Every structure is written in structure tokens, then in C-alpha cells.
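Task card 7
Instruction: Convert sequence to C-alpha cells.
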Amino acid sequence: MRKNLLQRIILIAVVTLVSLYIVIGPRRTPKLSDFTLAGINNTLRENIRLGLDLKGGSHLVMRVKVADYLKRLTENNSIALANAAKEAGLPVKEVRPEVSERNYRVVVEATDVSKLNQIRDELVKKVDLSGWSASVNDNRLAWELTTAAQRTLSEQAVDQAYRIIDSRINSFGVAEPTLQKHGAQGSNQILLQMPGIQDPERVKKLLVGESRLELVHVIGPDSPAPVQRFPTQEAAIASLGGTVPQNRRVLPYSERDEPTGASGQTSEDNQNKPKEWVVVEAPGIIAGDELRSADAVPTTASSSDYQIVFALKPSGAEKFGRWTGANINKYMGVVLNDEVKSIAFIKSQITDSGQIDGRFTKESAEDLVLTLRSGALPAPLEYQEERTVGPSLGADSIRSGVYASLAGLVLVVLFMIVYYRGAGINAVVALLLNLIITMAALIVFDATLTLPGIAGLILTIGMAVDSNVLIFERIREELRSGKTVTSAIDQGFKRAFVTIIDTHVTTIVSSLFLFVFGTGPIRGFAVTLVLGLLANLFSAVYVSRTIFMWVLSRKGRRPETISI
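Output:
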């Protein structure tokens, strides 16, 4: 028995010391100040991940505007069908998109009604129209996006936005963010919580910042004549005959208006520079999804001005090389978010790299690089809810939670010692060890402690004491039936063990449902409760039994009484 007791004591000592080190041990080279009460408090705060409600930070709910995504998809298909009809020489009078609420349609008007079927068959071969249902009416062909396809594309847009936001927020360096889909199915909402971020404006700009990069053909005379620029948008449209055809776009072209000094003021010549307009070909040569890498580098002229250097994927480089090879002595534009940032003259074939010039500051260049690397959002984001929790409010929450935990712990300790006397001290030791192991488990599993998580800790205190009460009452029953102390303790633990397992398993199963279907704070409660219950199986049963064994070994082989 003594050998078994020694093994138990060694195991409990190792678990206790390891748990204490995990909870209050510094994550760096320890200093003498770390072992003071204030040092231990600071280390404990550093080791435990605190949630938004305890640490402070920002809570954002965003909605992906999938209607804009479906509208743009309809317009792109309209352009593709018009170009395909022109290339094939089909008798098509007009191709136009028709968009209304939840209705997305591309209409093709033919000049020869007898060839509608031929037009339809030829266009289907050249343009991917999966998910679009075709119909014929008079002299028109119409492709309408089906309801099922709208639902699928909407879900894909939300998924893509989720991945891009995740990439951007991690690249930005926000510590321990919580990102998840939010709301009912079809709400297209995404929840983002950023503990420790008190001024989320820059992060918000980064998240909603568009990064639609395109390389386009700028319409104009061949070299050596300069590209044609127009002083107004109306003048540019007038050069096209008063209307903009589907294979053309009129875009603004101007230098960036960026702060140039520490004061944040812009240069005077840049402020007064009028915006110009150019005509570009649609669709573009390649889009931003062909981007392989992007970096912000200072210009040779000034270390305070930056430019964006990018490289293309092999597929994009092949298309880009083929186009530039066939369009030497013409102009190419770099378009970012429907604005021409720079215009280059094609002297020779270019394959896999390029740059965006402009008056970028270091911060704006780095932010733009992050958005380019993560890809373009499929649709704009709309903020529907924004809440900022200050650090003082988080500190108040921690203080209230600690006071509640201590009050509950003190009352439980007093009750157990008064009602169960010596055995009550056994329960208190097991309870304290339970809390230490639970906190260590939270740190090891990198779980986030929230205010509901503190509530889970308080509930764990009650569950731990409940286990000891079951065991002690069973021991009392065995003693009243006339059994010896040793036999009563053995039978009390054996018979209570099944009940303890039953209560713990049912509670853990309920907590797992909370974790799977709950949101952030509810999941924090579930995680804390499950870890606490698992720790309790060790402390309330194994540790408590070991303490009884140690007490019995001190009383001799046949103790007559025990304080319970």
C-alpha cells in the first residue's frame, strides 16, 4: 500500500508543479520581479488569452453585398457574349444586362429571328453559362441566373470573403482574432472580434479595401504619339460618339493624393493637379487573381515615396506575354479599383512582372500590398454592427468575475469544513488543484477566457464540490451500516464513482453541443466547463482518494474513526 501511495503522491506532485508553472511561469527569461505578487498577477494575465469582453477590443459584424457580386457577374457575361457574337460574326443587334431585385438576366437581340437557335448554340460554345437558364422570346434570347445558382454563388462569395478577411487580418498582425460566419443562413454576415484593438479604423479600411487589379489596353494612337487624355469624363465619352460601347470603359487617371510629410499634408502641386480621363478596352488583359506576389519598395527618387512591384502566376504571365508581344508600340494601363494608376508604353514583350507607380506612403503601400496578396473581395462589405469595448470595462469585468469566484470559493470552503470537518479540508485541497489544472489546460489548449468562461469556472467549483459531497455521503452511509473506516472509504469511492461519471458525461455532452452550435462567448463557457469537469475527475476522485489513503496510513492499519 505504501508503494502505491508513494506513486500517487509523486504523480499528483508532478501534475501540480507542472500546472503551476504553466499558469504563473513567465514565457521568457524569469526576473526576480516575476515572483512578487504583482509579477505573478502580470504573468497570469500574459499567459491566459483574454476574450474581447475581458481584454477590450473591437466587435464588427459585416455583411457581404452579394447582390453587387451577382450584378457584376451579369455585366461581365453580357460583355463576354457581345465579344463572342462579334468575333463569330453572328447577326446580333444588341447584348445588354437586365438586373432587378433577385433577377439577373442577359438579353441578346438578334437582327435575324430565324437564326436565334444558331446564335444560342454558338454563344454557349464560347461562353460558360452554367447556372443560367436560356429562353427565347420574339427576336430575343435571354439567359437568366437560376435561384439555385444565385444561392450557390452567394455562398461562394461569402466563403471567399471569409477567407480573404482571415488572410488580411492575420497579415495585419491582429492578435487572437475571432472570425466566424454570423446570423441565419442567407444573411451573408461575418463576425470579427479583435481583442486589444481599441482604434479599429485602419483595420476596417484594410478589411473593406478593394484590390481589384487589372492590366488593360489603353485606347490611343500608337507611338510616338502620347496616349490621349481627356479633361472631363464627358469629353472622353464624346470621343466614343456620345455612348460607351460594351467593349470600352472610361476611367479616371490621376496621381495619388498621399501625405508626404510627418504633418500628414499633401504636396501643393498634387492637390491642384486636375483629374484626367482615358478610354480603355474591356475586358482587361488579365485580372488580379493572376497575381503571384506583391511588395512595397521605396522609389529611387525618394525614400518616402513607395511603389508596388508585382509578379504574375505562370497562367497570367503567358496571357500577358502573348498580349504584349502582339501590341508593341501601344499603351497598357494598370487599373486598381476602377482607376488608372499608371500608363506604360509597350516597347517589347513583357511576361511575368510589373509595377504600380504613385505617391504611396509606406503605410498605404503596405496596406495595399496586403489587400493585393489576399486577393480581391468578391463583393463590397457593409458594416452592420460595430462595438468597441474599452480596456477599463474589460478590467472591471475581470475584477467582478474574480470577486464572484472568490466569494463562491470562500463560502464553499466554509461549508465543507464546517459540515465535513477533516474530510472538508480534503475537498478544499482537491478543489484548489482542480482550479489550477483547469487554468493550465486553458493555457495549453490556447483557449480564450471570456466572461462566460469565468462563469464556467464558478460552475466548475460547484460541480467539483458536488462530486466530493457524493463521495462523502456514501462513506457516511457505509460507516452507519457498521463497516470499518477502510472498507467504508473503499466502498464509498467505488459506489459514488459511477454516479460521478454519469453526471460528468451528461454535462460534457451538453457542453459539446454548446460549443458546436454556440457563438464565441457561449463557446468560451463550454470550453471552460469541459476542461474543469475533466480536471475534476482527477482531483475529486484520484487526489481525494490519495489524501484519504495518506490519512489512513498515519493512523495505522485499522483506524477506528475518521473526521467526516
